[in-house]
Amino acid sequence: MKNDFQLLDHQTALDLKTFLTRAKKMDPKGVVRLRAFGALLTAYVAPLFTANILDDGPTVLGLRTMDLKQEAEINVLVPIQAILDRIAFELEKPELEQSFVFHLESSERVPWAGVSPPRTGWVEATSLPEYMLTGVARKGIIEVAETIPESVGGPIAARIRSEVWGRAIDLDSKVPAGAAFAAAGLGFLTEGEMVPVFHSQGWVRLSSQFGHVLSKEAKHF
User: Fold this and answer.
1) CB neighbours of 133 closer than 8 A, spacing ≥ 6?
2) Could you tell me the end-to-end alpha-carbon distance of the chain, in angstroms, rounded to an integer?
3) What pLDDT digit, counting tens, does each position of 189-211 carry?
4) Judgement on whether residues 89 and 137 belong to the same structural domain of the protein
5) Does position 1 have pLDDT exceeding 60, yes or no?
6) What region holds the DUF8185 domain (predicted)?
7) Same domain, 25 and 108
8) Judging by beta carbons within 10 Å of its beta carbon (0-12, 13-18, 19+), is residue 3 exposed, middle or buried?
9) pTM score
10) Other CB atoms closer than 10 Å to residue 163's CB: what's the count?
11) Helix 130-147 crosses helix 177-185 at what angle (to 10 degrees)?
12) 165 is in which domain, residue-wise?
């Protein structure tokens, strides 16, 4: 697979930059998976994931889509910083000289890359108010900070985070708290909006006008 592509325009590059900057803030060593089979690019990041696919903690994916200048075939996993550096390089040029052409090869391996949400079968189940999702995210951040002593790391800290972010925000939606955390942190939420919730094959998806968050349905409340 060639993995060469060109973003549609200057604004598309700025949108991708904003999305990846937020994702990198949530995971400083983060990786992005870029996929396209046509003129639509999908960019996946993982604000929350377990180090071992056998762990019971949540894996939460953030997804943005954007247009390409022409059709491409892409499936690549690269450091977020590499994409940000390339965009910054182009933005330093006069706007008329910017091309936003990428030539990429997969250089990373991460546990969440093997997680594949369903592509079809999504059914809207309900919608949740933005203030509720924002509140869940804030409450979870505080709980994690207060529960994990500064001296504690490794498996104990990972278990606590999994418990907090894997918990369902209510019995009906089965949305894990980590999905609310990702939606807020990635800038997908707009004040006052209602966010549709979709389900498919044991997965749940929050979809706002700015992006999507996907995860397995929460198993506990």
Assistant:
1) 169, 180, 183, 184, 189, 195, 206
2) 43
3) 999 999 999 999 999 999 999 99
4) no
5) no
6) 117-218
7) yes
8) middle
9) 0.92
10) 17
11) 100
12) 123-216
